[in-house]
């Protein structure tokens, strides 16, 4: 390894100079190479960085300060290397194409390495921590050769929080640095906080593609061998082999959900896969709502909702992750640990999510695996109803809507989507024009309703309300959803996804459900959020969506707000409370230019006992799989449901 680099300028007046502070503070006999230095005096951090340097043997080490100049220089290098292409259509925006085999989270390669296997539970892959560390240390050995190692200090959530959740990601991917810079609060300010604390999450990431001297690089280095590993007791993350999204931006799923859920269990709070929105009624009444839908099932879209119901307004606080803690007043307060949006591109357009379009139009966005237009813009399926006449697809090939070129030759890309179904935009949250002014509040916002929702063609009605907290936890625990392209594997298979957290619970799933019940038991019942269950994706006999979704979901949000204020009527059904006839505002609701029929609304809201009878064995199978840690409250709820359905 050559001399350490730091890209920060140290003014002469600053008392702490890189290297010097470390050298003078270094205890005798410390196992740190003497060549190492860094712009912090946090011993634990310096020792860890030195250990990773010794293990991974990078060419150079750069500490990220988070400045615009730093990113400008790095982006220029990424463009030179061909990893990113600068887009003409938006300011400071870039396109990146991943390796075709590195396009989504790899759940099969994701491990919870708790000390005791039982603590990982039946829903997680597990390996003994020491064994995993041995395997991964072998992989990490020399894995950054020929590359620069970046040290990225970051903070999840507002920097002025009472208990800021800090981390440092070490990575050999500049694409990851650029994305982390958008998604989290990175650089000097986070490092200043880390300087004074002992607890920060160590996040080690490598694309796993060492470069031999003089060897040419590829535009998206990665490895066929991938591991995404959490060590919950040590609050440590090791990731190897992938450069993509939740596999590589370790502040996101790995820290803010898997590690944070274990922290939350220990400390009495909730770390959830939820958007946070602020719903404002025409009278100015505000309700803050958190909603959990599985990956690629509508969180970003609901968070940015543009209501079609006159007078109603939505503002966004977060689109993917919510941390919820009790405030001094006994209410549950939510903060969004992230600082950016890593949104699904396909389906995002002016007609579905205009606020996302306005956000990315402002620039400063990294697009991954989308298609490119001839005028330096981007396109994906669903951005506009009609595709442009010519595109470069996400694999870099010519693409036309018909699959043939101007000469009539069939293109290699014929029949394939132009953008990958899990293509993404990564953009600063502050650019969203409807962001709530309180999005950066260190205490968060008091949540009045929690909404669960899956992607289900059948069975699950458009909206229902839980009778109480335990029933709501039951609804969340039994949630099923069709798999999507956000994770590798077959798409469209219904799987149970408790609270949309199946791939993200950092410990035993039964213990997790019990933690939810405990949260409810220790709260003032009157101040607990009310729990709802929605499904935007129910289909009719012809396979069409029964509900138009998107902006029209404001009608459902209105019913929820009016349930909270006691204004809207509901009727009891075996599965919970559903809108009474006329309680759901469908005034002016049109589908394909025709008023939506009351019959169709009825179908969307229907509780079909025959469908539920088919659902019960699936829930039973799921609960049996969860095993002995399943709380008895959940079995009680299942028995109650069966009784109400006439099955007991
Ligand atoms: N039919 C229908 N599709 C929707 C609706 N809301 C979102 N979608 C589509 O579902 C897909 C995923 O939506 P997102 O809002 O990005 O999902 P997400 O939950 O934020 O996804 P992650 O970022 O993976 O966690 C997109 O293609 C959307 O267009 C809806 O109300 N109805
Ligand atoms: O983590 C990712 O890659 C993207 C995401 O938000 C999800 O899958 O829920
Ligand atoms: Mn997500």
Automatic annotation (TrEMBL):
The active site is at residue 297. Residues 48-265 form the Phosphoenolpyruvate carboxykinase GTP-utilising N-terminal domain. It catalyses: oxaloacetate + GTP = phosphoenolpyruvate + GDP + CO2. It is found in: Cytoplasm. Substrate binds at residues 105, 244-246, 295, 422-424. Its cofactor is Mn(2+). Transmembrane segments: none annotated. Keywords: Cytoplasm, Decarboxylase, Gluconeogenesis, GTP-binding, Kinase, Lyase, Manganese, Metal-binding, Nucleotide-binding, Pyruvate, Transferase. One of its GO terms (molecular function) is kinase activity. Its EC number is 4.1.1.32. Residues 269-644 form the Phosphoenolpyruvate carboxykinase C-terminal P-loop domain. Pathway: Carbohydrate biosynthesis; gluconeogenesis. The keyword Metal-binding applies. GO terms for biological process: cellular response to glucose stimulus; gluconeogenesis; glycerol biosynthetic process from pyruvate; oxaloacetate metabolic process; propionate catabolic process; response to lipid; response to starvation. GTP binds at residues 296-301, 424, 455, 550-553. Mn(2+) binds at residues 253, 273, 320. Residues 1-13 have a biased composition (Polar residues). Residues 1-36 are annotated as: Disordered. One of its GO terms (cellular component) is cytosol. It is an enzyme of class 4 (lyase). Catalyzes the conversion of oxaloacetate (OAA) to phosphoenolpyruvate (PEP), the rate-limiting step in the metabolic pathway that produces glucose from lactate and other precursors derived from the citric acid cycle. This is Phosphoenolpyruvate carboxykinase [GTP].
């Amino acid at each position: 390894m050559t001399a350490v680099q730091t890209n920060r300028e140290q003014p002469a007046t600053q008392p702490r100079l890189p290297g010097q502070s470390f050298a003078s503070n270094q205890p005798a006999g410390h196992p740190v190479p003497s060549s190492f230095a860094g712009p912090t005096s946090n011993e634990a951090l310096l020792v860890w960085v030195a250990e990773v340097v010794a293990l991974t043997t990078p060419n150079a080490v750069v500490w990220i300060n988070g400045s615009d100049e730093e990113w400008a220089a790095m982006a220029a290098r990424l463009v030179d290397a061909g990893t990113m292409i600068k887009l003409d259509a938006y300011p400071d925006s870039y396109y990146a194409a991943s390796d075709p085999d590195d396009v989504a989270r790899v759940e099969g390669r994701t491990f919870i390495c708790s000390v005791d296997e039982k603590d990982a539970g039946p829903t997680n892959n597990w390996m003994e921590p020491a064994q995993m560390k041995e395997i991964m240390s072998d992989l990490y050995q020399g894995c950054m050769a020929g590359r620069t190692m970046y040290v990225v200090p970051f903070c999840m959530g507002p920097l002025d929080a009472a208990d800021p959740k800090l981390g440092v990601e070490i990575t050999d991917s500049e694409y990851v640095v650029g994305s982390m810079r958008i998604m989290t609060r990175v650089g000097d300010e986070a490092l200043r906080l880390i300087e004074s604390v002992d607890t920060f999450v160590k996040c080690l990431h490598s694309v796993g593609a060492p470069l031999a001297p003089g060897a040419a690089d590829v535009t998206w280095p990665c490895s066929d061998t991938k591991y995404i590993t959490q060590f919950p007791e040590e609050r440590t993350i090791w990731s190897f082999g992938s450069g993509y999204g939740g596999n590589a931006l370790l502040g996101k799923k790995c820290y803010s959900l898997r590690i944070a859920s274990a922290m939350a269990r220990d400390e009495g709070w909730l770390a959830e896969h939820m958007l946070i929105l602020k719903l404002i009624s025409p009278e100015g009444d505000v309700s803050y709502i958190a909603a959990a839908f599985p990956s690629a099932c509508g969180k970003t879209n609901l968070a940015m909702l543009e209501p079609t119901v006159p007078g109603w307004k939505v503002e966004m606080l977060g689109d993917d992750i919510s941390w919820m803690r009790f405030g001094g007043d006994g209410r549950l307060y939510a903060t969004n640990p992230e600082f950016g949006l890593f949104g699904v591109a396909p389906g995002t357009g002016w007609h579905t999510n205009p606020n996302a379009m306005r956000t990315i139009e402002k620039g400063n966005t990294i697009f991954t695996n989308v298609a490119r237009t001839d005028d330096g813009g981007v396109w994906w399926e669903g951005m506009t109803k009609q595709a442009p006449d010519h595109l470069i697809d996400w694999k870099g090939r010519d693409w036309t809507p018909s699959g043939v070129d101007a000469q009539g030759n069939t293109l290699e890309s014929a029949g394939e989507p132009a953008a990958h179904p899990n293509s993404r935009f990564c953009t600063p949250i502050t650019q969203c024009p409807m962001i709530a002014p309180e999005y950066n509040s260190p205490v968060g916002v008091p949540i009045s309703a929690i909404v669960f929702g899956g992607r289900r063609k059948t069975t699950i009605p458009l909206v229902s309300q839980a009778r109480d907290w335990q029933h709501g936890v039951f609804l969340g625990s039994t949630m099923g959803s069709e798999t999507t392209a956000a994770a590798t594997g077959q798409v469209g298979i219904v799987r149970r996804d408790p609270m949309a957290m199946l791939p993200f619970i950092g410990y035993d799933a039964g213990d997790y459900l019990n933690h939810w019940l405990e949260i409810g038991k220790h709260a003032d019942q009157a101040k607990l959020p009310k729990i709802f269950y929605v499904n935007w994706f129910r289909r009719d006999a012809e396979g069409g969506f029964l509900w138009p979704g998107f902006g029209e979901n404001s009608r459902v949000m209105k019913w929820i707000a009016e349930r909270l204020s006691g204004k809207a009527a509901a009727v009891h059904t075996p599965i919970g409370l559903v809108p009474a006839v006329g309680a759901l505002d469908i005034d002016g609701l049109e589908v394909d230019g025709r008023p939506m029929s009351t019959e169709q609304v009825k179908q969307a809201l229907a509780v079909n006992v025959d469908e539920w009878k088919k659902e019960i064995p699936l829930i039973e199978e799921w609960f049996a799989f969860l095993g002995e840690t399943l709380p008895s409250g959940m079995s009680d709820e299942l028995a109650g449901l069966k009784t109400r359905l006439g099955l007991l």
